[in-house]
Recover the amino acids of this structure.
């Protein structure tokens, strides 16, 4: 159970891969997880909130902050005058400005500075 009464999804490799791929996530209680929202953290990481379609329990998935490699790839594209996409969500998930940060709306992670 998380701090706000939500269930915390175990960290594994499958769920983040499905999430970044834009696929539906299976729920631990059966059914699937419906995306409710993304909450960026001040650390540059984020939390994604889901509701289980079968049990209505709410689950959170922690999204790790960007790696130095991801940040340098984004920076390189910026310097080349390109509009970078999210390194995890891939083509079509354009990073957007949020204050000084360059963030992905889908995962809430900051990948650089404007
Ligand atoms: Zn993303």
């Amino acid at each position: 159970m998380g701090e706000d009464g939500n269930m915390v999804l175990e960290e594994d490799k499958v769920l983040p891969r499905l999430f970044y791929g834009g696929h539906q996530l299976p729920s631990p209680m059966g059914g699937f997880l419906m995306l409710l929202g993304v909450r960026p953290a001040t650390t540059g990481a984020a939390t994604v909130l889901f509701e289980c379609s079968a049990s209505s329990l709410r689950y959170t998935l922690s999204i790790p902050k960007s790696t130095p490699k991801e940040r340098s790839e984004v920076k390189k594209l910026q310097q080349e005058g390109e509009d970078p996409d999210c390194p995890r969500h891939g083509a079509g998930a354009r990073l957007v400005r949020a204050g000084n940060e360059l963030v992905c709306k889908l995962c809430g992670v900051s990948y650089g500075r404007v």
Remarks:
- The mean pLDDT is 92.
